[in-house]
Hints:
heterodimer, A: about 35% helix, B: mainly alpha, about 70% helix, about 5% strand
Amino acid sequence: MVNIYGSIDNMHTPLFSLKDVWFSYLGKIPALSGVDIDIYPGQKVSLVGANGSGKSTLLHLLDGLIFADRGSVSFLAKRLEAKAFADEKFDREFRRRVGFVFQNPDVQLFCPTVKEDIVFGPLHLGFEKNEISRRLEKIIGILDIGSLLDRSAHQLSVGEKRKVAIASTLIIEPDILIFDEPTAGLDPQTSRKIIDLLVDRSLESRTVITSTHDLHIVEEISDVVCVLGQKGRIIRSGQPGSILSDADLLAENNLAHIHSHRHKDKVHVHEHAHSEHHSQE
Amino acid sequence: MKDNGLLSFLKDSLFSEECALRGGLLQSLDPRIKVLGFALILVSALLARSIGFIFCLYLLSLCLALFSGIKLGFFLKRTWVFIPLFSLIIGLPALFSNFTPGEELLRINLGSFSPAISVSGVLTFSLFVLRVAATVSFAVLLSMTMRHFQLLKVLRIFGIPQVFVMVLGICYRYLYLLVEIVENTYLAVRSRVGAGLHYRAGQQVAGWNIAFLWMRSYRLSENVYMAMLSRGYRGQVHVLEDFKTGLKDWLWLIFTAALIICTLRFFH
Lengths: 281, 268
């Protein structure tokens, strides 16, 4: 498949390439300092890190919503900067290929009804009306949200809002999907449904980039994990097994879980660093 | 509880779409035709000079409310809150002969000042109050039987600029979130200090709230804009039109058109 940005069939060309990327808010509050990362087509990448480690900032940079102070962010060798997005053709093509699901669904659902929210993307990206209707039917079926279409966002539960936010991105059918904390604040069952969706066969060939601090889901949804440290720097990246079994790495970066159990009068507190089951494999 | 009660009232009256979701006569009409019909009725009420005719229009609004599944008591409460507000203060002077000269009906003795109520004054006042009652009733009826997103869609169709309608829709959407934030903040304050907050401390809390809300809404607006950009927004608004008209809609339009013709022919 060839387009104005070159071939994406080439697995050796990174989709996203970040070289020594620095970003700070208001020029004062550092969020990222010297991030280097390459993301290849079809990869499932998880960005893990504690709160405030710069995960969301990194995702916003990948989606061309903010731009690096220093260093370069490239998409198929084209630098992502304000100048590039001023070109309507590039903007439209990029938005068709990169879908972003925000952490807070209230941010993403701004239309009067769920239906209008879902079709907002396709309408603004110039899809044909018939095609929009076809995709709408399809996405309603996948996410089972037919009964929500005429509702306003404020009439939905948090889980429903999350589903609709995902639908509003999936309907664009982008090659690359970016999820910012997809399971944050959800009850276990809804969280499970969202994870099932992330590992669904229909997304198999797509590139999925997910930020999370929920280590339980990392192994299931990713084949590459990048750990962001407190200073907005990628500390380590590798396969989920090797990252999750490194108890020191997780503890240093506030990612180790602390569990406590009550046995009669005694409370046992211990760290759970995913190392046990990996060492048994 | 007062502040919270006020917020709950605001939430209920602004965001409750319970009536609009009922399966009544007005709810079943195509929103475009319904708005057009209501506009024609309102013009009729404004142009008509016959008290009897305007009274009939008022009765029509009550009948339509009943056929749309709205309880009469509830509807009267909702409308008569506004009617005195719009009519009494403005219309009251018209009762007196100083403003509407005519045959004297009643003189009120207030010492050196004794104003007289004239017959023509009473007629003018009655016409005015009835007109307000009829127009307010139809306006309330329209808002009660129509979901807000339909109203926004109709505004677009009637030529209101898309960006303006979109901003209006986003305001409506996020007003709910902001009301919720204020409500939760008040609850959080109450849970810590109880109901007996000194008014000075209350003022301080209100001040913090305003600042906090401003920051939250600023941040929210930035994020919403990013979410719009992410899905291809470039300053032009595109919407999906999916209204359908049926026989009932055309009958409604013919009825309201006949009403305005009648007004112009016989009651203007």
